[in-house]
Amino acid sequence: MRPLSKVLLLFLFFGSFSLHAQFIPNQDSVSAKPYVYIELLNGEDYEGFLLEQNSERLIIINEQGLEIRIKMLDVKSIEFERAETIKESHYNLQASRYFFGPNALSMRRGEGYYQNNWVFLNQVSFGLSDRFTIGAGTIPLFIFGYGAPTPIWITPKFSMPIIPGKVNAAVGGLFGTIAGEDDFNSTFGIGYGAFTLGNHDRNINLSVGYGMADGVWSDYPTISLSGMARLSKKFYLITENYFIFDTYLFSLGGRSIWSEVSLDYGFIASPQEFEALIPWLGITVPFRFKDKQS
To answer: How many domains does the chain have?
Structure first.
């Protein structure tokens, strides 16, 4: 129970981020203010909506609703950016997934990404609508020889906003086969339901699914508890955790995002055996197709 308790405490931490973000006072009027990035002489940095500025001080309110007062004498630099601009330019396109597993959030219509983890795990995902996402992936083992068994899969997901920007649900799955196998019954997959609390910057997710191999479905569910929190302009803290029978898989790491690429990094381990830490490294390249009607 001790490893499970540690994971649950971590989720309470993420939940405090997610829930607190929902109660920013006068959110409509605040979001109309300029968005600023402030760097102090001591190396600290802050960001948020600018409420007041004069020769002595400035006051901002961050996305958690906390009011921060800063002396102008301590300020090294101030970068102004409109709130709608920052939300678009640093919008976390991959917020609909964690390191690999999905949540109930959706991508916008016409946007997608190519994801590569440790060179061999490849997947492309695309938003056919604001609620329906489709993806396809493979581990191209055929490069090692003609006819080598190569896993390929698709990942459909339908998202349903319950309270827009706060609570979402989704159903989806990962369904695949082994290309190059003589036995055409070599199929695998998982069907799941997901419930996500929070938005694209901070969220926690509970997913429950049942796995399948060669057409036979598991009698026991796979449970996933995951979360992410945006801690700065370009950095997200991520955890993705699985409970399968009596086995726990725990992961913790980060995501650094830029306009043309993002980098995932962290480790995977079983809380029962922390001696074996498996590093995780992935890169994601986003893309967007403009809607001809816009």
So the answer is: 2
